[in-house]
Amino acid sequence: MSLPTLTFKALADPTRRQMLERLRSGDLNAGELAEGLPMTKASVSHHLAMLKQAGLIRVRRQGQNLVYTLDATVFQEALQWMMGFLKD
Amino acid sequence: MSLPTLTFKALADPTRRQMLERLRSGDLNAGELAEGLPMTKASVSHHLAMLKQAGLIRVRRQGQNLVYTLDATVFQEALQWMMGFLKD
DNA sequence: TTTATATTTAGACAGTTAACTAAATATCGT
DNA sequence: ACGATATTTAGTTAACTGTCTAAATATAAA
User: Fold this and answer.
1) Which residue of B8, B14, B82 is in closest CB contact with A75?
2) Chain B interface, mutation test: which of A11, A50, A76, most B Cβ atoms within 10 Å?
3) Residue in A44, A47, A49, A61 with CA at minimum distance from that of residue A12
4) pTM score, two decimals?
5) Which of A30, A52, A81, B21 has a CA between 20 and 30 Å from the CA of residue B32?
6) Which CATH number covers residue A18?
7) Which region, left, alpha or beta, applies to residue A16 given φ > 0 means left and ψ of -120 to 50 means alpha?
8) What total of structural domains would you count in chain B?
């Protein structure tokens, strides 16, 4: 699947966008990310897997926790595709 | 469904992005849009309906044809959401 | 007004997604 | 090594998506 397709699919879910927004303020572990979301931790884990597959987040283990970090690199390509429309 | 969700969903399909790209060069009717796409006209029509629902295109009748026009207005909101990530 | 052309709508089907519960895995502290 | 905590994986289910074929609708042309 092409990179922009993966990115747009990942962004097409409000829960995932919300998780990304919270990661902007700093890294969070899975439990913290699940707090306040109206779904089970298993479902949150599923969304995290999709964001990771899309390359929008990275993960590292820190003791008992898995800490997630925003990786905006991949945003660029999707963003540039969109910019092309408004330009010229 | 929220506006950015609809927009991202619409953009999450390569066929739809391709159709939007072709509309950048000027208006096209459904038949023209279907040319070269590896699917039936019925399927193309279905994609057009999704793009219209998302507010990314407009349609008007011109004789026998339905002519589609790009409407980039709605791009702005999704784009701004994305820009927020790279900014600051 | 009958026939052809353009396009959509309806119905079916396979594959994907988002959610759940329950079970598995990994690390930590004792 | 054991029990607690953190998180994922597995399996299920309902809803959604992308595609098809066939039928319906709308306009144009003869």
Assistant:
1) B82
2) A11
3) A47
4) 0.92
5) A81
6) 1.10.10.10
7) alpha
8) 1
Which chain B residue shows the shortest CA-CA distance from A8?
A: B12
For the stretch A20-74, pLDDT in tens is 999 999 999 999 999 999 999 999 999 999 999 999 999 999 999 999 999 999 9
Q: Write out chain B's pLDDT in tens, 88 residues.
A: 889 999 999 999 999 999 999 999 999 999 999 999 999 999 999 999 999 999 999 999 999 999 999 999 998 888 988 988 888 7
Q: Nearest Cβ partner of A86 from B20, B75, B86? A: B75
Look up tokens 């898995």; give the residue. A66
Residue A40's domain spans which residues? 3-86
Reported confidence tier of residue A85, pLDDT bands at 50, 70, 90: confident
Let me know if A67 is exposed, middle or buried by CB neighbors in 10 A (0-12, 13-18, 19+): middle
